[in-house]
Design brief:
The structure is a single chain. Helix 2 crosses helix 3. The strands form two sheets. An eight-stranded mixed beta sheet has the order 1-2-4-3-5-6-9-10, sandwiched between helices. A two-stranded antiparallel ribbon has the order 7-8. The protein contains 16 helices and ten strands. By secondary structure, it is of the alpha/beta class. It has two domains: about 220 residues, Alpha/Beta hydrolase fold, catalytic domain (Rossmann fold, 3-Layer(aba) Sandwich); about 120 residues, no CATH class. The chain is globular and about 60 Å long. Strand 1 and strand 2 form a beta hairpin. The two termini are about 40 Å apart.
């Protein structure tokens, strides 16, 4: 069943969610009215689990792991995050309130939801894609509230560092940086650009929202291209963050310079037979995404990519802090997300997380691991939580 077209800001229509998962709203969350999916809400006192989605996703992305987690004894909740879906109160204008999308303010959103639902702490915060660094920052900033952390598809390479031991030494001249990675990519024989830089541009939202192939076909191709269904996803570690190394990744990460994302993924549109055979994201479920993003656009999510420099200074308050709670990393074996930032996976394991309980690359999954392989993802989470 598709989302309720007559009231796009109401709760989901009956039958849209798995049995045991409900759609609701929670008001007064850091200026937001949050749309939340919830399982394990039977009134008993249950430990909480917070699930944070990425781009271009929704709380709906967690639909198939919520019931198993609830059956394991948890109160499970997943919001449409700031900028997404049926959550309201955010500024979707390209020239609007960009500061509200900075990392630490998104953590305030998460913290407010936890408290509003009656918890003083949660057993785990789980984040996928762009939700992964938010989950990591939740763990860094409030270890008393977020007692463990599961990161998915995007390794957390750590908190910022500050210059040390400089007070009595000679002033060091600024290092010559040379051409940026973005300049180097543009100068390749086949000119390229980084998708994160593209996502900061004014034209990105309209290119995807008004894709020539239609937003539903755009999202079908986008999800397909980054999944294990696309045979070209065979990721490996890159030697360095250089243009020639980065250009080895698929074009959904290192795009052709002249293309928008709509044109990029259109070249990899699955066939009708492939679409019909897709069991992890059948067309009716994909339509939940396409109808929501057709209504809201993508600018809210894109603003997360644009706000990094705005919040960088306040993140230095946590310079040198590590994630000392139990942690786990889960990704698809066919997911380039684990390797798109060379060295990040290693820094996460070696320094950023001091109690890493496991790194799992799930067979049969690309970037959308909790959707492509929900049973295996749920089992890994339940085993991790059960051992705490």
């Amino acid at each position: 069943m598709a989302a309720d077209k007559t009231n796009g800001t109401g709760i989901y229509a009956e039958g849209l969610l798995p049995s045991g998962v409900r759609s609701r709203f929670v008001d007064g969350i850091n200026g937001l009215r949050m749309h939340v999916l919830e399982a394990g809400y039977d009134g008993r006192s249950r430990p909480g689990i917070l699930l944070l989605h990425g781009f271009p996703e929704l709380a709906y992305s967690w639909r198939n792991v919520m019931v198993p987690l609830a059956e394991a004894g948890f109160h499970v909740f997943a919001p449409d995050q700031r900028g997404y879906g049926r959550t309201t109160g955010w500024d979707g204008d390209y020239d609007g309130d960009l500061a509200s999308f900075r990392r630490l303010n998104i953590v305030r959103d998460a913290l407010g939801l936890v408290f509003a639902l009656g918890h003083q702490s949660v057993t785990a915060v789980v984040g996928h894609d762009f939700g992964s660094p938010i989950a990591a920052w939740c763990a860094v900033i409030r270890p008393d509230v977020f007692q463990s952390v599961a990161l998915m598809s995007a390794p957390f390479s750590g908190t910022p560092s500050l210059p040390s031991g400089t007070a009595n030494g000679p002033t060091q001249p600024a290092a010559s940086s040379g051409p940026s990675l973005f300049d180097q990519l543009a100068a390749l024989r086949r000119p390229r650009k980084h998708y994160q830089r593209y996502y900061t541009t004014r034209e990105a939202d309209n290119n995807m929202r008004s894709a020539p192939q239609g937003i539903h076909a755009f999202l079908r191709a986008y999800y397909h291209y980054k999944s294990a269904d696309w045979a070209g996803n065979r990721p490996f570690r890159l030697a360095a963050r250089t243009a020639t190394e980065m250009a080895k990744m698929p074009t959904y990460y290192i795009m052709d310079l002249a293309d928008g994302m709509a044109e990029t993924v259109a070249k990899h549109m699955p066939s009708e037979e492939e679409i019909a055979a897709n069991s992890w994201l059948p067309d009716a479920e994909l339509r939940v995404y396409s109808e929501e993003f057709a209504r809201t656009g993508f600018q809210g999510g894109l603003n997360w990519y644009r706000s990094g420099s705005i919040g960088a200074a306040e993140q230095q308050l946590f310079a040198g802090r590590t994630i000392d709670q139990p942690s786990i990393f889960i990704s698809g074996a066919s997911d380039w997300g684990s390797y798109q930032s060379p060295g990040a996976l290693e820094r996460m394991q070696d320094t950023a997380c001091t109690d890493m309980r496991g790194v799992y690359m799930v067979d049969g999954a690309g970037h959308w691991v909790q959707q492509e392989q929900p049973e295996q993802t749920g089992r890994l989470l339940i085993d991790f939580l059960g051992a705490l």
